[in-house]
Amino acid sequence: MSSKKIINIKIGHTLAFRLSLWYAGIFILSSMVAFVIFYSITASTIQRSMDRQLLNEVKEFTSSLALNGVEEIKSEIVLEAESEGIDKMFFRLLNAKGEQIASTNMSSWGNVGIGKISLARINDGEGPVFETLTIPGRQFKARIIYGLIGPEMILQIGKSLEENTLPAELLREIFGTTIAFLVIVSALVGWFMARRALSGVGEVTRTALDITKGAFDQRAQVRAKGDEIEQLSIAFNRMLDRIQELVTGMKEVTDNIAHDLKTPITRIRGLAESNLNTGKSNDGCQDLAADTIEECDYIMQLINTMLEISETESGVAEPAKKEVAMAKVIWGACDLFRPIAENKGIRLIFEAHNSAFVSGDIRGLQKMIAHILENAIKYTDTGGTVSISLHNDNGQIVIAIHDTGIGISEEDLPHIFKRLYRCDSSRSQSGFGLGLTLAMAVARAHGGEITAASRPGEGSIFTVILPRASYSL
Q1: Do 257 and 144 sit in the same domain of this protein?
Q2: Residues 400-454: pLDDT tens digits?
Q3: Which CATH number fits the domain that encloses residue 297?
């Protein structure tokens, strides 16, 4: 996965986002469970309190019946209902068969009947029996009690559950408002906790991205927290140290071999040139000597280019940097390759922004542009066009080199900046396969990057992005 893809991960797919959802979900679920338990306990407590009130009513009327008789009870239930509110409470005196002996005003209670099952249970000797009824036309349910207050004398009392329902509804409204607030708070707290917990992972990721851009000396910061992130950072840094040690060793071996090869190749070339200059050999030997010199020059150029790439990538021989006008560099490259382009019948176009300055090594920048431009002309057929544009873009210098050449296949495109890599379509052309590698090394040495986009048969576009010099307009 490329660094661009890593950076462009959607927030909804990040681990921090998923952890935030988990934090918020667990918090909300816990709050709902706590509310259900609290609500159930509260509702049960309120109902028990009402049942005790109704039982006390039954006991009071039982005592009153024994002392004052039935007629007094009839008067008392009317007074009691009126004091409570005839729409909130009713009383009915019944005999053992369920026939009504007396009743309070039932106009607001609809057709509240007499429960036969409850009467049967009372007649079987059970204690007071409770019912909860839904009465058509009334907003609130009613709690009903049947109690034996005398020989074959049953008292039915009904009371509205309005006093019980309103607190419960208020509690639900308060919980609904609270839970909405808690959802936002829990999401924010979860996001903060997740980001804080994963901050070390983000730092390791940023370090890895810097390394992919060529900053091989970068290391993840180790914070003394004693957690898994600290162990990850330590292991990551150890891995980087080992990888850098191996890469450095491989480069040293490669450079040493290249240096060691230069001496014998130079000696072979010298012997061949000496033999060619004496003129004493026959034509066959002189041709062989000329071919030997040519091949030695080719190998020396290859070795020198590889060494230059290694030095540029490692920064060992970093030259003094100065402000370089990129328009001047590109004009120089165009003047150099214009005769070649004209011989092939290729149009060479350049549009420049003269205030595009880069702080860097002018020779390296010249080679970078030259290699890309040379490739564009080399793989563009007669009648084609190679255009170069230069402009400033948000603190960066952007150079785009577009050709209408043979293009690069999708399989080859990711590998074109590798050393000695050559596409199938380019194997018939001269070259080492190191030009784009050197161009990329120069760009990265200047804190920049080169990207390539291409389609076979439609041409290619190479985009060089470099940091703009501080004083550039």
Answers
A1: no
A2: 999 998 888 888 888 888 877 776 555 455 555 688 888 888 898 888 899 999 9
A3: 1.10.287.130
